[in-house]
Amino acid sequence: MKSHTPEETASILTQALPYIQQFAGTTVVVKFGGNAMTDPHLFTTFAADIVLMHSVGIKPIVVHGGGPQIGALLQKLGKETEFIDGLRVTDAETLDVVRMVLAGKVGRDIVSGINVHGPLAVGVSGEDAGLIRAKPHSTEHGFVGQVVDVNPDILHRLLAEGLIPVISTIGSDETGQAYNINADTVAGYLAAAVGANKLVMLTDVDGLRRDPDNPDTLIRQTTSDELHPLVGTKTVSGGMIPKVEACLHAVDNGVNTAHVLNGTVEHVLLLEIFTVSGIGTIIRPGDGS
Question: What does residue 84 show for φ and ψ, rounded to 5 degrees?
Fold first, then answer.
């Protein structure tokens, strides 16, 4: 890691101060996924960054996925995984694995990583206190769910106690049946429901590109009006679709800004929130929002 002179450190802190003052007391929803979840160093710096944000008065909420970890355990169990339209077909046995991995392994690891710095993080499943109400996505996908509603009461109570919620993206219907829900989608709905100031999506690329194969076409800033027509085109295709749709849902429903960042860049959260230039793609509400 690059070391800084005292003068450089003072300059960095001075640049960050206005942003610390601006965002103190606001809620920021961070969707944590990709390589940052499996790289031990990036995982550690992510946890430290979340704690730093909390220390300067920001209220972070972490929403996490766990696709690679789920796939690895299913493979160990000798169970084949089928995907339809990018979503994992989830039968009852697979659902048990998903719940175990998300709430019992990945969520606990994130909570533990944050709590190295103090007793701050609390693991929450979307099934808890009716947080995420879901319905089936389709018959062919099995127990894959769509978000019907978010009841953020438990999150507001945790934030009021100065705690950091870490959300596992399992929802349930009115009968108590659990569903596996895409973590990007949950992050967008949660950000809107809690009245977040920002939604931050951590990915494995530098942001949204007009040409996904050309890093020089990175879109630094855009609006929901400009972005909606691009969903399903070359610019917003494949795995980027649920991320962008989550950002659009957030900014179209009261969230001030959404950000698509490269989670493999060390301290990317701090660079985006606390520096003038920022890093990645920022999405703002359009005129019709």
Answer: -125, 120
Phi, psi at 139, each rounded to 5°: -65, -40
Q: Which of 142, 168, 133 is nearest to 84 (CA)?
A: 142
Q: Could you give the CA distance from residue 268 to residue 260 in angstroms, rounded to a whole number?
A: 11
CA 160-170-153 angle, 5° bins: 25
Residue 108 and residue 114: Cα distance in Å, rounded?
10
Rounded Cα gap, residues 202 and 219, in angstroms:
16
User: What is the CA 109 to chain-centroid distance, rounded?
Assistant: 16
Could you tell me which residues are beta bridge partners of residue 231? 236
Top CATH class, 23-284: alpha beta
Query: Which residue, 131, 123, 136, 124, is CA-closest to 179?
Result: 136
- Average confidence (pLDDT) over 256-279: 87
> Where do the domains of the chain lie?
23-284
Report, as an integer, the average pLDDT of 245-274: 92
Asked if residues 185 and 239 have their Cβ atoms less than 8 Å apart, the reply is no
Residue 215: pLDDT band with limits 50, 70, 90:
confident
At 234, the amino acid letter reads K
248: left (phi over 0), alpha (psi -120 to 50) or beta: alpha
Count CA atoms within 13 Å of residue 232 on its CB side.
Answer: 3
Q: What are phi and psi of 73, to 5 degrees?
A: -70, -40
**Does residue 198 contact residue 209 with C-beta atoms inside 8 Å?**
no
Residue 2 confidence class, pLDDT cut points 50, 70, 90: low
Could you tell me which residues are beta bridge partners of residue 135? Answer: 146
Is residue 27 within 8 A of residue 196, CB to CB? The reply is yes
Using DSSP bridges, classify how beta strands 145-150 and 87-88 pair: parallel, antiparallel or unpaired. unpaired
pTM over 0.90: yes
Amino acid at 213: D
